[in-house]
Design a protein that fits this description.
The complex is a heterodimer of chains A (about 325) and B (about 425). Chain A is of the alpha/beta class and about 325 residues long. Chain A is about 40% helix and about 15% strand. In chain A, strand 1, helix 2 and strand 2 form a beta-alpha-beta unit. Chain B has 12 helices and 18 strands. In chain B, helix 4 packs across helix 7. Chain B has one domain: Alpha-Beta Barrel (TIM Barrel). Chain B starts with 6 loop residues before the first strand and ends with a strand. The chains are: A alpha/beta (about 325), B alpha/beta (about 425).
Chain lengths: ~325, ~425
């Protein structure tokens, strides 16, 4: 096995590539640091000088508005210089040019790349090839990992539900194609929740998913029974054409989160979604905009959590 | 002329499974052939003596799957570079799948390749002809003409023949002339965009998986057609335990089928992919510990008859990519024997079985004159020191492809000399 690139030899957080391979203390420190930044975000002057003089490049090979924007805001609040780049995937389908792109930017003395790519493992690949002074934050690689999303979800859960060890959490939907679900599962397990359930038809479950430490349900009502947290996943509309599921209608009837289906969960359950939402496909508007929903706070928390990760990587004395 | 040299190989342990020989004897080579073992023939004067004490002298290895990359992909490797790599690996016969560019579906291509390799003279190249024209899976290639031009078997390389009536007719036609058909079992729908074994590791890495059934379904389908057509068939590079079971059952029913496995499937599993190690991207994919164990068992018991290198050299950039974009394959010629000897060292199989599965058995499957040290045979000989311990430095490989997941592996046993047609084509001194 290759060495863990996420830490320096002295144990400091160096790259942020996947939740798998990070220590529980690191995850907890991210939550604590993000807490401080949240309080700060409520003040009038929102800028902190922590990353003054650092250059952060948002390198998004795959389109995203929400994630890129919150990373940009996070970096700017820490006073970093931010550059946004969206190279088209077609011109970088070969690893040679992918690494070329990074080499060129690196020659411009950038400090941190926030990287998104449609292929699993690209963050790890780039991290293996950049010099020691360059850092990588994975903002989503294929179906592998989306660790900052998972951490903002953890932050939101902790904010609304308190300590993790009592909680039952259900993740609902297209687990098979979801990097978010994979990172959530690792984070929830690492932080020690009581139980994780995944709810989906078998055709949307990856092989041997139970080995990740989850209980598998194909029935929504049974799966939601008594849970404290419901984490919905986005369903790509093209899944129908490849025969993963029969139709939008059947999917919504069986797995769509509505007031009726949510009734099976705990009375004070929270509902989360990484966005963008397909209203009427995986979730009803009534629930998405309803009292259980914490979907908008998730977005707000995304800024503080991303500030925390950047500060821990680039900042002086954080021993993750 | 080097070819005319009289060579005396002195004091080595001769392991020659084809002739059931395992003893310390001298071997004498003249006029490109083995002329005697034990005592020198009358009037023999050695021009050259190879001291083989404490070494093993065995038939030159016969590798059932070697991509030379020429013609068509000379930026990856050339006949010259890979012939030298084969010689350094003790491999004196290389079977080349037809997916060159142009494809080996014409007699001219087949003879051109054979001749060019013969001109280089470091190893014998035997082309495997395309089973269907252009590997398109639609019309049959001129199999008989290709056979006459030197093709030792027929396959459709990595391109699955999905139309079962085409497959049946290809088998029927090949059976008419007792031609060997090689099959790489892969269901293209089940493997789809998969790039590794489907299981816990692919789930963790978020990579599309290739289920075991992508292989077993096609093996089951092809076995039914083999039974019906009576063709001589060989399953190339099987990767799973259940595939072994299917083939063993078919042999028990009396079917004329054989199989080989790539050496890396006897050493690695999907776990070795670790964090997206593209050097472990191979087709068929590395599977589980259970599969690896069953494949090892099957080689040891002769249920799998041959081990090949599945040599696929690549330029550096081919592996510097996202895992799913990385080109599959390992540069394997120079590690075939050492990795085989590692199996002997680990007690998986005995040295005689290993050498048989690397030489006499594949030669017998192909029906070629190779893999034997009998008097009168062409002097294709591999001499190796079974005890020398070394670390693999991939940058020192003679192959132009330095792509190997076995980098820095401790290996034991190394070729010291290789003879091809009586000529010393490799010597470590």
């Amino acid at each position: 096995m290759s060495r863990n690139l996420q830490y320096t030899d002295s144990g400091k957080l160096h790259h942020f590539l996947s939740i798998e391979g990070l220590r529980k203390e690191t995850l907890e420190q991210i939550l604590i640091t993000a807490d401080k930044f949240t309080q700060f975000g409520q003040r009038d002057i929102k800028k902190l000088p922590l990353l003054r003089g650092f250059t952060v490049v948002n390198l998004f090979f795959e389109n995203s508005s929400r994630t890129r924007t919150t990373f940009e805001i996070a970096a700017k609040r820490l006073s970093a210089d931010v550059i946004n780049l969206n190279p088209t995937t077609s011109s970088t389908s070969k690893g040679e040019t992918l690494l070329d792109t990074v080499n060129i930017l690196e020659a411009m003395h950038t400090d941190l790349f926030v990287l998104r790519h449609a292929k699993s493992g690209v963050a790890e690949l780039i991290a293996q090839h950049v010099p020691d002074h360059v850092h990588i934050i994975n903002a989503g690689d294929g179906q592998h990992a989306h660790p900052t999303q998972a951490m903002l979800d953890m932050f939101t859960i902790r904010q609304y539900k308190g300590p993790f060890h009592e909680l039952r959490v259900a993740i609902v939907g297209d687990i098979l194609h979801s990097r978010v679900a994979r990172s959530q599962i690792h984070a929830l397990n690492s932080l020690g929740v009581h139980e994780i359930r995944v709810i989906a038809p078998n055709s949307l479950l990856p092989a041997q998913v139970e080995r990740l430490g989850v209980h598998v349900y194909s029935d929504l009502q049974q799966g939601l029974d008594g849970v404290d947290v419901v984490m919905m996943l986005r369903l790509q509309k093209e899944r129908m054409s490849k025969a993963y599921i029969p139709s939008e209608q059947e999917y919504f009837n069986l797995y769509g989160l509505t007031s009726e289906s949510l009734a099976a969960a705990a009375d004070d359950a929270i509902v989360m979604h990484p966005g963008p939402i397909n209203r009427g496909l995986e979730i009803s508007s009534e629930v998405a905009d309803g009292p259980h929903s914490v979907i908008l706070p998730q977005v707000t928390n995304g800024i503080a959590v991303r500030m925390a990760v950047m500060a821990m990587i680039l900042g002086g004395d954080n021993n993750g | 002329m080097a070819e005319q040299m009289n060579i005396h190989i002195r004091g080595g342990r001769i392991i020659d499974p084809a002739n059931r020989v395992d003893s310390i004897e001298d071997l004498f080579v003249s006029q490109g052939k083995i002329v005697a073992s034990g005592k020198a023939p009358a009037g023999f004067t050695a021009d050259k003596t190879i001291e083989a004490e404490n070494q093993i002298v065995c038939p030159g290895l016969v590798d059932l799957s070697v991509r030379m990359r020429e013609p068509g992909q000379e930026y990856k490797a050339t006949l010259k570079s890979e012939s030298a790599a084969a010689a350094a690996g003790g491999i004196t016969t290389c079977c080349c799948p037809p997916d060159t560019s142009p494809i080996i579906d014409t007699p001219a291509m087949a003879s051109m390749l054979t001749q060019r390799a013969a001109e280089i003279g470091l190893t014998q190249l035997l082309p495997i002809g395309a089973l269907t024209t252009g590997l398109e899976g639609e019309t049959l290639s001129d199999m008989f003409a290709l056979h006459q031009a030197g093709c030792v078997a027929f396959c459709n390389a990595e391109r699955p023949i999905t139309n079962t009536i085409i497959m049946r007719r290809a088998m029927e036609y090949a059976a008419s002339f007792d031609l060997l058909v090689m099959l790489r079992a892969n269901d293209p729908w089940l493997s789809d965009e998969g790039c590794m074994h489907e299981g816990e590791i692919s789930t963790r890495l978020g990579l599309a998986g290739i289920p075991e059934a992508a292989e077993t379904i096609i093996i089951a389908r092809d076995l039914a057609l083999i039974e019906q057509t009576g063709v001589r068939a060989h399953f190339a590079r099987i990767s799973s335990a259940r595939s072994v079971d299917l083939i063993v059952q078919a042999r028990e029913r009396g079917l004329n089928v054989s199989a080989d496995v790539a050496i890396h499937h006897l050493h690695l599993t999907d776990y070795d992919i670790g964090k997206f190690n593209t050097f472990c991207r191979v087709t068929p994919p590395l599977r589980t510990e259970r599969d690896k164990d069953r494949l090892r068992e099957a080689v040891a018991s002769g249920q799998i008859q041959a081990i090949c290198s599945d040599h696929q050299p690549h330029e550096k950039d081919a592996k510097l990519a996202a895992f799913s974009d990385a080109e599959p394959g390992i540069s394997g010629l120079e590690t075939l024997l050492p990795l085989g000897l590692k199996l002997v060292d680990e007690g998986v199989l005995d040295i005689n079985t290993l050498i048989a599965s690397l030489s006499s058995s594949p030669a017998r499957l192909l029906g070629i004159e190779a893999g034997s040290l009998g008097t009168g045979n062409r002097a294709d000989i591999c001499i190796f020191d079974p005890d020398v311990e070394w670390l693999l430095d991939n940058t020192k490989l003679l192959s132009k492809g330095h792509n190997t997941p076995f980098k820095h592996w401790p290996l034991k046993g190394r070729v010291t000399s290789t003879l091809h047609a009586g000529k010393i084509v490799y010597s470590d001194s």
